[in-house]
Amino acid sequence: MKKMIKCTINNYPVEVEEGTTIIQAFKKLEQEIAHYCWHPGLSIAGVCRLCMVEIEGNNKLQIACNTVVQDGMVITNQSQKVKDTVRWGLEFHLINHPLDCPICDQAGECVLQEQYMKFGAYQPLMSEDKVKKRKVVDLGSKIVLDTERCILCARCTRFTDEISKTKELGIFNRGDRSEIGIFKNKPLENDYALNTVDICPVGALTSKKFRFQQRVWYLKKAPSVCTGCSTGCNIDVYYNEEGLWRIRPRHNSSINQYWMCDKGRETFKHVNPSGRLKSSFRHTAEQTEKMTTFQALQTLKLDSKKIGLVLTGSYTCEEYDAFLDFFQLHSIYHWKNNPKNFEDYDNFLIRGDKNPNTKGLLESINKRQLKLEDCTQLEQNISHLDLLIVCAPENHKLYPCLEEKINLFLKSKELVWISPHSHTLLQKPINTVWTIPSKTYFEKTGTFINHHGTRQKIKAVASIVDSARSLEEIIHILKTGQTDLTQIASIRDKMKTNYFMEQKGSL
Amino acid sequence: MEHKLLTEHYNKDNYKSLEGYKQCGGYETLKLALNKQPKELVEMVKASGLRGRGGAGFPTGVKWSFLPDNNEPRYLLCNADEGEPGTFKDRMMMEKAPHQLIEGMIISAFAIQSHKSYIYIRGEYTDSISIIEQALKEAYKQGYLGKNILNSGFDHEMDIYVGAGAYICGEETGMISSLEGKKGQPKLKPPYPAVKGYLEKPTVVNNVETLAAVVPIVRDGAEKYKAIGTERSAGTKIFSVSGNVVKPGNYEVPLGYPLMDMINKLCGGLPPGRKLKACIPGGSSAPVLTAEECEKACLDYENLMDLGSMLGSGAIIVIDDSNSMVDILSVIMHFYHHESCGQCTPCREGTGWLDQIVKNILHGKGRLQDLDLIQNISQHMMGKTICALSDAAALPAISFVTKFKNEFIDYIQQNKISSDNLNQVV
Ligand SMILES: Cc1cc2nc3c(=O)[nH]c(=O)nc-3n(C[C@H](O)[C@H](O)[C@H](O)COP(=O)(O)O)c2cc1C
Ligand code: SF4
Ligand code: SF4
Ligand code: SF4
Ligand code: FES
Q: Roughly how many angstroms between the first and final C-alpha of chain A, as a whole number?
């Protein structure tokens, strides 16, 4: 254990580990401190010069981000001297800033804007001409750069140097002609590039997909876990009445730190209403019959049938448990998104297993000492089955083998397809196919176990498709023959949950 | 009186060759040094009172003793970037007495037990580069460099690194970044170079003149060196005098030498009919002195500090009454604006802002409140950044506007347009 030392911050005594920087101590105490360049996940740049503090016995102000707390230090950022310096620091940041907040996508979550409202809000001193710089610089397929808005905090360059280690970004030229940029023919295309948009404190880096879509202050934010792969990065989902708009990483020091991959950010689209399966269907060669999920489950005859079950890693532990406890199964198959690269890992976050809960699936199986067969076994067994239930992937995009597998499943005498989405192949079958809408991670409460075995709770945020049911709810209907779902605790919880944006701005 | 300790043999044509250098006792001091304990040499330099000649005036022996006491590889870097406007003493040293620098560096390297050193020369100094290159070849050939130098068991490799000519690469950590192949930008301190410098290893950076001065110190003894100059500014210093004097050039004098004697006795005074208006005593970063202040000024660290200026790199820029102070400040501000590396916001934005304001005044577009604004901006650029370039831009701005306020007001009120003598001085 590290030695603890004492210091005083704005008159509050605090104990910190030896080696803690002053800015970390401020954060620990939740004392406000202005800063642009410091980011807890990056090295120290010490360039914005805004995090100034006054240390008793030291005439010269020091930057909090690069000064280590010494035992007995008395530190303040409330003195007039510090306040003047911060105000001037802001002035220096703003003199060449275009101030185009009204048309800037960052407005509402811009640190410069926030600090101006806090410490600035005065008549500008600068009447000279501003330095003109390039405004719509294309950095690649994902990101646009506005070099006039950039405050040269070097967060993005440190990210590509230290975290993605891809080094696409650099600061070119010098002095007030300095500009962020990329090298010729080397666009910012790495798998983690959009993190630079998150950490950019201003609207200099914006996401091509998200910009101009929504004003951020109209969005609510809810914590969740990414379902893009088995890493289970912690995320915040931004949404409104129309649906989900973007995903950003949420800090978790033992899983994703401050980051997530760009593909993970796309895993909200399948949640949105368009394209969702909105009621249950029974498809036969002759006809398609629409019905409620309740009706479908009532109509389904399970008794004395030889049932096979196909599971994917998209569902919660609670859902697997409910399913496995309820059915008398002939055989269970594991459907992987891509058996060839299932074990892949890029040594940072991205894993080949594109499911949030493969570990949970295996745990539920092992707990019951059941046998889990590979999906390839199904080929031989399918003719022995009367009914095949497929708990299909939540996000079809992550399953390149989708059609190939559906064609296989369609060979079954009777097929029950449970998924938030249907597929055209299912709609003109030779035999009977039931399609039953299931819930996405945004609509249900439960547990995912990530690749490392870490259990993470997700909570239902809102209902997107009313007819969608979680596997737990499906079992509840089958068991009780009732639609009243309030008996399931996790569902009751959901009714109460409503997350509003709690924190503003980026780190 | 001049005191030629380092410049004694500058006039000898063959002094830059190893042969010529040896005829004047060259590399004898190295032999002496290799027979001493490294620690002894460090103590000697400490006792001599030698202070850095690159600008900051930090005691050289003390700097050396900051190196950690371990076996880690360590580097000696010679700062031959000489970017401070008005300074041309290092260039002269490299062109006239390259071996003096090399000998000083080998002794210094032995003192700090470094086996690798670089001379970082600015790219514009093509002559210096080829002369030092030639001198290094000779030194290697004769066994003053390389393995087992003069059978002492001490190995040392020395190389040249050519910068691309950026002022900021003269700042020691900017130089280290550049040497590492990165963009020449100063590094955040701490850690200091003595602990984590070039390639993250302990590093000493010294100016050309500082390293060359190690030779006479070791040769004649610390006491003798200490006896030259004043109590706290020991030894001699080479001053580069430019501007409105009859005989501009490099002059080596004991520290503490009166500024007016430098101008009048050594440099032949001002051009006929001109009157002294001001003088910048330590390179463009040093606050300007008025004519009255010049009368009292002595060329040593303390005296100039007391007058609110500094000795800096020892570049004396003499300004007579034919010049406009607004013009000169505008040139200086343009320089810092151009050279700021741009990392730290107050420096990046402040240098550009100051440049623009002073240009506006110069072009008759100034406002009276600009004078206060210049003061305010400058105050908030000082002591707030990674390196001292920001201060170096703020200090002249403050001193010009304070001491020559009326000239600035003249420009603002009479809409006086830029005179043609722009660039004549700096
Ligand atoms: C902006 C800036 C430029 C500098 N340029 C030079 C230079 O060209 N040559 C030099 O010797 N020192 C220069 N210095 C000083 C160096 O940082 C450093 O203090 C010096 O090289 C140390 O050597 P010394 O102790 O022998 O003086 C500069 C400092 C700053 C802040
Ligand atoms: S683009 Fe954004 S993150 Fe990058 S340096 Fe500029 S302000 Fe900082
Ligand atoms: S690494 Fe995996 S869990 Fe993390 S954001 Fe990407 S897809 Fe999601
Ligand atoms: S003070 Fe100026 S030159 Fe020095 S590091 Fe900061 S921005 Fe660069
Ligand atoms: S946060 Fe400390 S200098 Fe930017």
A: 28
Query: Given 3.40.50.720, 3.10.20.600, 3.90.920.10, 3.30.70.2190, which CATH number is that of B236-320?
Result: 3.10.20.600
A42 close to ligand 2 (CB < 6 Angstrom): no
Which residue in A262, A157, A164, A158 sits closest to A208, CA to CA? A262
Read off the tokens for B391: 């201060």
Query: Does the bond joining B190 to the residue before it have cis omega, within 30 degrees of 0?
Result: yes
Contact B383 A60 (CB under 8 A): yes
pLDDT score at A486: 57
Span A329-342, mean pLDDT? 95
Tell me the DSSP string of A103-145: G-TTTTS-HHHHHHHHH--S-----SPPPP----EE-SSSEEE
Distance from CA of A88 to the nearest CA of B (A): 7
CATH topology of domain B13-227: Rossmann fold (3.40.50)
DSSP H or E segment with residue B125? none
**Taking the domains of chain B in order of start, what are their residue ranges?**
13-227, 236-320, 325-414
Q: How far is CA A126 from CA A95, A497, B57, in A?
A: 6, 49, 36
Q: Is domain A127-271 annotated with CATH 3.40.50.1220?
A: no
CATH of A280-487, one of 3.40.630.30, 3.40.50.740, 3.30.70.1060, 3.30.70.980: 3.40.50.740
pLDDT digits (tens, 9 = 90+) for B167-222: 999 999 999 999 999 999 999 999 999 999 999 999 999 999 999 999 999 999 99
Burial of B415 (0-12, 13-18, 19+ CB in 10 A): exposed
Other Cβ atoms less than 10 A from the Cβ of A124: the count is 11
Low-confidence ranges of chain B (pLDDT < 70): 415-426
Write out the two tokens for B271: 């051009």
**CA nearest neighbour of A308 among A353, A373, A247, A227:** A373
What ipTM describes this predicted complex? 0.92
Please tell me which of the candidates A44, A48, A173 has its beta carbon nearest to residue B345: A48
**Among candidates B256, B283, B310, B269, which has minimal Cα distance to B3?**
B256
Fold of A4-93: Ubiquitin-like (UB roll) (3.10.20)
Any chain A CB within 8 A of the CB of B357?
Answer: yes
Q: What is the pTM assigned to this prediction? A: 0.93
For residue A495, pLDDT over 50 is answered with no
> How many angstroms separate the CA of residue B134 from the nearest CA in chain A?
34
CB contact under 8 A, B348 and A176: yes
- Check residue A490 and give its pLDDT: 53
